[in-house]
Amino acid sequence: MLIPMDTLPLRITKFDGRRNSYSAAERLRAELETWGISADVHEGYRLALAWVWVDLVVWCDVERFWWRTGWDEERKRAIYAWHPVADLGRAVRRIAFRYAELREGHPLSASVRAALKEEPDRRPAWPL
């Protein structure tokens, strides 16, 4: 007997990685939007990712978000931060801080500002 997936208990369906990682990344995107930060969400290979800004891509699986925060020159490898999906509010705050750092180093180009009809000195307010 086949049982439709939408009638299975949550504890069984929670292992559908694509569905949950994507929905978690979508929740992240929506929460970042309330902070004035846009992101694009993509999915594949049981992961989802939210592209937020230059050098800020947030990966998501069923349990955690993680993003690159720097480079360890001695070990020649990237340094990552992570936060549990269950604590979305704090994850968004940490990602917003990283976004603010990167935005300082990579402001919008003149052509993008013109396309968005944004004045050169205008920056979005970040409620940090």
Give me the number of helical elements. Answer: 4
H-E string: HHEEEEEHH
Radius of gyration, whole Å: 17 Å
Mean pLDDT: 80
What gross morphology would you assign? globular
Strand content: 25-35%
- Biggest beta sheet attributes: 5 strands, antiparallel
Task: Let me know the number of strands.
Answer: 5
Give an overview of the whole structure.
With 128 residues, the protein is α+β, with helices and mostly antiparallel strands. The chain contains four helices and five strands, in the order ααβββββαα. Strands 1-2-3-4-5 form a five-stranded antiparallel sheet, covered by helices on one side. Strand 3 and strand 4 (64-72) form a beta hairpin. The radius of gyration is 17 Å and the shape is globular.
